[in-house]
Amino acid sequence: MMHFPSQKDFSPNRLIIEEPVAREPLVNRIRQRLPQVSAEFVKDIEQLRGDRDLDDALLLARQRGPFLRYCPGTPRHICCLYQNLDVAAGCDMNCTYCILQGYLNTPGKTLYVNTGDLFQELDKVRLQRTDQFFRIGTGELSDSMTFDHLTGFSVDLVEYFSRWQNAIIELKSKNVHIDHLAALQHNRRTVVSWSVNAEPICRSEESGAPTLTDRLQAAAKVQEMGYWLGFHFDPMIWFDGWEDHYRETVARIFQFARPDNIAWISLGALRYPAAMEEVIRERHPHSRIVLGELLPGPDKKRRYFKTLRIELFRRMVEWIRAYGYDNGVYLCMESDEVWHKAFGWSPGSSAGLKKLLDDRVRVR
Amino acid sequence: MNGYRFVLVPVAEIAAEDETFRVALDPPEASLRASVAAHGLLQPLRLQLRADGRYRLVSGFKRFHLVHELGWEQVPALVVSERQNDLALYTSSLQERLAAPKPLSPLEIAEVLSKLRAVFALSEEIVVRDFMPSLGLGRNRIWLERYLPLSGLDERSKTELLREGLSLDVVFALPALAAEERHHLLDLFKALRLGKNKQSEMYSLIRDVCRMQRRSIGALLQQQGLAEILADVELTSTQKAERCKELLMRLRYPHFSRALQAFHDLLKEAGVPPALRISPSPFFNSEEVSIAFSFKDENEFRRWMGELQRLDAEGVIEKLVHLP
Prior knowledge:
The complex is a heterodimer. By secondary structure, chain A is an alpha/beta fold. Chain A has one domain (60-361): Alpha-Beta Horseshoe (pyruvate-formate lyase- activating enzyme), CATH 3.80.30.30. In chain A, 33% of the residues lie in helices and 20% in strands. Chain A is built from 12 helices and 16 strands. In chain A, strands 4-5-8-9-10-11-12-16 form an 8-stranded mixed β-sheet. In chain A, β14 (294-296) and β15 (301-304) form a beta hairpin. The longest helix of chain A has 16 residues, at 306-321. Chain B is of the alpha+beta class. In chain B, strands 1-4-2-3 form a 4-stranded mixed β-sheet. Chain B has a two-stranded antiparallel sheet with strand order 5-6. In chain B, a hairpin with a 5-residue loop joins β2 and β3. In chain B, α13 (237-252) crosses α14. The chains are: A alpha/beta, B alpha+beta.
């Protein structure tokens, strides 16, 4: 057992199960790991809307739509054409900037437990589109590993993807549940990645998540297990002293990770839909992130003024390149202009960026 | 009339301090004052006899105020039964007020909700379900959370809340401010005569700049620039409001404001006539610059085209495209 002092083990006070999925194997597994919580059954979790006591509840439901869908992207921006596998919605770490707090229709923390349907859907895609490479992740609507101590579901995913040459699964997390990854035959078809930030931001805006040190130590352990690593500086936040602190985080990454084992490092500046600003102000009145110079973008989301974003990215690229790491650094949802001004070049299109990232983890 | 007695009640026997059933909080309107002075009370007060032998007002607080002011000794009143339930009486008083053409002010709504909860001991659920809709609010607890704190404000702020024209964004923000801060803000809005939208806009700027600079509203308004604008007797309130907003925008969005200023300075230095409208993309989101002009004949068209060619030849267009 690896011990991380700041590890978060979400422990629900309610376990609410949709009747149609009550006999799913994953439900049994979760119930066995939560013997102290008695289950409540509902026909449809939609009927919980308005229930104000769901903050610490875990909802087990059926994914009604497809599990796999393209990242929505932003018009006129370069997107990496990532595909999200929606196995959960909601997270327990309560980061101030989290898009999920203003984004999700489903109340509480929901795990979609009809995993038979999920693997069937993946099989279909795998068999039908053999010429395509897939980068797939579970960290869009939730944290990929924060519920793993209850579900162990990452094990199923790692093992499934170990047999699929044309795809890679990314487990993106801030948590440090990694024990269960140790004994797996992953065939380097899994990237285990951490969302990282400047230390003061980790403390003030991600106070419900494990410390940066623990995240990086977990990354080092996972690297020893032979997995690819990934790091996501997203959202980067402009604050007094950002340069020193982000440079420091970059330096610490390269103390723990070998450049040749880092699949990618993404950079994304703070952004959110306009309506989320009030949500942040209400839920996190002490957070200062809404005081940034955030202005409406072409997609109506609030983003830092362009020159600030360029400066954030330009300096980061400079610091990261100093460690001999270059090709795997990319921007999340930025324009060709910003790419050019920050990197000195641009992948030119979403397809160009996809190819660049696919090539980094393709089986050669 | 079932349950009512119509009587003349000595004014001195009315316990004016008992405001259990009071809904309207604003002072009597001039028209009511004139009507009572000229014609007396056309509608009697509604009263209920208390255990101590004095009467309490059920409705007609403004009328009673005027009658008292005019020095009447007796007043015509409908006296309701002592057995009448307090909540039923309050509800009828509320309905009477709601039937008036003037909508309830935010403070009046707050006081109604506060009484329903504190005086009549109704649960949140009942207040939300049975009273919110008639107050023009959705059946949502959030409204209780927003309105209730208003009833705890200081008297000066409450008086301001009775006047029409305050933005609800601003109203709901007031309880979180210290009394002095509230007064600065309300005084500013009154002095600048801002409409609701402009109040919201300016409040957002003030709130954020204060947090950014870690200073109070009072200190911000004393800051060089703002204090001068507000003290300038040559400026109209509209001009003051515009200049305050410009200054606050520069403080709130310094990089964007500088870029915009640089763009306009470049146009000015190049001698671009105002009729040739050259603008950056919104918030400089893209590198695109738009140019608009109108013309009535080919000569005017050629003149504008010549002007654009001049700007291009002088390198102004290139500079504009690359700003910021």
